[in-house]
């Protein structure tokens, strides 16, 4: 872990349809080979932050109106999503978004379209994914729409891997999955980080799992990152435990004024 | 019995021509969610360009190549100047854009080639040949053969090539295709060019049948009941729907027509489509959403 930031999000503001302010000055950074998680409630801006990184905002008529996103020191704000995938940044969308009418293998191949692989190179790339996700092997000829939720999540991650990314942004990889499957998926993400040095930026509502597997965590509220720190430290904070685990050490919590930040900057 | 068979075969063969036009719609609808109203104008433009070139003593093959080139250029221009600025707009906006586009293309072809009616001779006799005791139009057989070859080529393209895979991915889930780095504009260009080629082929076949004139752009209206029947997003549906409409139309004309004093061929397809809508709104082969519960 060199400590050079691979990705820097610098004070960005995002507006949807020229009217809805979704992010108001969010900053974060991801080091090479680091797993970073974004925690926060629904609508806090986690997904928007990921889409700003992977340049998927335009598809939802959103725009970065202030600030910059740097990948390896380069401003990537003006790149196409496809250029960005070639540069090494890819997103695994919330809700998996596999191609339901394509077979599992075709889904994987679609992830390599940008690399123009064929023949043996394509086979090798596929085998690498099948090694990581052996559960996909018996399903390779089946339409992705007929596989289970866990398999679809694996497929979505595998499809992203086919593009040989250096940073994967994952939006709610645990959504709707059984706890055991969630563990399986996070274990694989762990392996990707350790064995292949792929950096991860994971937006999660399942704070317990995310904090256990991440190196660093940000808590997003009202379009800003209000608190950040090593995942273990964040997990130990009583106010975070209160809010995100529902296991309160001190069952009494001071009520806060509406609109005011729930968490405050650590002293 | 022979007579029934003859009507049926004649209907199926003319249905192939409907399928061909319908496929042009399906290609674009599947990938970009737009009902391309300009399909008819493209078809007219292709037929008119071809026939005008041939009348100016350009050899058949060269005229075909030049027209093909023109359809490719039109496809590129539509993507660049109409679709790209309107990307992520609601479907109705895109539909209106293609409606406007159809007038532009029709106007341009009139400006370029004039408004006369042209006869188009592809060198195929429309004389009937006898097979197994029934008479079949040679031209219909030829048209069916061409349409069949066209469909086969499209199917191979979608199943076997990387662009074909990208096309199916975009048709399945645009956002996901975007997220894995598929370049949507390239897929759209490919699709509009493919639709242009389909328009060329169907324009020539229909032009040879009806004469090349401005009402040729109205044959696309016949594709609508085919699409309702087959589903807007299924190539197979377009084929089966075309065959069904073709056959139903001819059979109705012969057997039900006399009850109305004849002449029902022109509107029977629409009534059939209307009735069908009540029963199966997504068509015979329309995408049944694969969904887990």
TrEMBL record, chain A:
Keywords: Amino-acid transport, ATP-binding, Nucleotide-binding, Transport. Residues 7-247 form the ABC transporter domain. InterPro entries: AAA+_ATPase (IPR003593), ABC_transporter-like_ATP-bd (IPR003439), BCAA_Transport_ATP-bd_LivF (IPR052156), P-loop_NTPase (IPR027417). Pfam families: ABC_tran. Belongs to the ABC transporter superfamily. One of its GO terms (biological process) is L-amino acid transport. GO terms for molecular function: ATP binding; ATP hydrolysis activity; branched-chain amino acid transmembrane transporter activity. It comes from the Bacteria. This is ABC transporter ATP-binding protein. CDD domains: ABC_TM1139_LivF_branched. It comes from Zavarzinia aquatilis.
TrEMBL record, chain B:
InterPro entries: ABC_transp_permease (IPR001851), BCAA_transport_permease (IPR052157). Keywords: Amino-acid transport, Cell membrane, Membrane, Transmembrane, Transmembrane helix, Transport. GO terms for molecular function: transmembrane transporter activity. It comes from the Bacteria. It is a multi-pass membrane protein. One of its GO terms (cellular component) is plasma membrane. GO terms for biological process: amino acid transport. Pfam families: BPD_transp_2. The chain crosses the membrane at residues 6-27, 60-82, 94-115, 135-158, 187-206, 226-247, 259-279. It is found in: Cell membrane. Belongs to the binding-protein-dependent transport system permease family. LivHM subfamily. This is Branched-chain amino acid ABC transporter permease.
């Amino acid at each position: 872990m060199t400590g050079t930031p691979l990705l820097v999000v610098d004070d960005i503001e995002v507006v949807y349809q020229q009217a809805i302010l979704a992010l108001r000055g969010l900053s974060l950074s991801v080091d090479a080979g680091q797993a970073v998680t974004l925690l926060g409630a629904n609508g806090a801006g986690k997904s928007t932050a990921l889409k700003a990184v992977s340049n998927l905002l335009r598809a939802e008529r959103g725009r970065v109106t202030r600030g910059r996103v740097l990948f390896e020191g380069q401003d990537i704000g003006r790149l196409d999503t496809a250029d960005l995938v070639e540069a090494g940044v890819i997103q695994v969308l919330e809700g998996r978004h596999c191609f339901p009418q394509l077979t599992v293998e075709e889904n994987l191949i679609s992830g390599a379209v940008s690399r123009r692989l064929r023949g043996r190179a394509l086979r090798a790339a596929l085998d690498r994914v099948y090694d990581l996700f052996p559960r996909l092997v018996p399903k390779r000829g089946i339409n992705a729409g007929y596989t289970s939720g866990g398999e679809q999540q694996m497929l979505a991650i595998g499809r992203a891997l086919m593009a040989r990314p250096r940073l994967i942004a994952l939006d709610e990889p645990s959504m709707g999955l059984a706890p055991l499957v969630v563990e399986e998926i996070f274990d694989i993400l762990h392996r990707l980080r350790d064995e292949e040095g792929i950096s991860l930026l994971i937006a999660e509502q399942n704070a317990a799992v995310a904090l256990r597997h991440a190196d660093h965590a940000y808590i997003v509220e009202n379009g800003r990152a209000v608190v950040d720190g090593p995942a273990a430290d964040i997990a130990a904070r009583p106010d975070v435990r209160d809010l995100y685990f529902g296991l309160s050490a001190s069952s009494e919590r001071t009520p806060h004024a509406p609109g005011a930040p729930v968490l405050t900057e650590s002293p | 019995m022979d007579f029934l068979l003859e009507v049926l075969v004649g209907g199926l063969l003319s249905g192939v021509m409907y399928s061909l036009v319908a496929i042009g719609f399906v290609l674009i609808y599947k990938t970009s969610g737009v009902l391309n109203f300009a399909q008819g104008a493209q078809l007219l433009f292709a037929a008119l360009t071809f026939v005008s070139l041939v009348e100016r003593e350009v050899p058949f093959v060269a005229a075909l190549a030049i027209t093909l080139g023109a359809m490719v250029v039109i496809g590129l221009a539509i993507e660049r100047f109409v679709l790209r600025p309107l990307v992520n707009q609601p479907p109705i906006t895109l539909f209106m854009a293609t409606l406007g586009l159809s007038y532009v293309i029709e106007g341009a072809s009139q400006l370029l080639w004039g408004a006369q009616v042209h006869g188009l001779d592809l060198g195929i006799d429309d004389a009937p040949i006898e097979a197994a005791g029934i008479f079949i139009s040679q031209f219909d057989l030829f048209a069916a053969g061409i349409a069949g070859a066209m469909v086969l080529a499209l199917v191979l393209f979608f199943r076997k090539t990387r662009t074909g895979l990208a096309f199916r991915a975009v048709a399945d889930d645009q956002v996901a295709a975007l997220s894995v780095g598929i370049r949507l504009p390239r897929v759209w260009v490919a699709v509009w060019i493919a639709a242009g080629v389909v328009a060329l082929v169907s324009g020539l076949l229909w032009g040879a049948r009806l004469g090349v004139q401005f009402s040729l752009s109205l044959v696309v209206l016949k594709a609508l009941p085919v699409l309702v029947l087959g589903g807007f997003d299924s190539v197979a549906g377009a084929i089966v729907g075309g065959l069904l409409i073709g056959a139903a139309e001819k059979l109705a004309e012969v057997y039900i027509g006399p009850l109305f004093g004849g002449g029902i061929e022109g509107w029977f397809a629409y009534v059939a489509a209307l009735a069908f809508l009540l029963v199966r709104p997504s068509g015979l082969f329309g995408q049944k959403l694969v969904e887990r519960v």
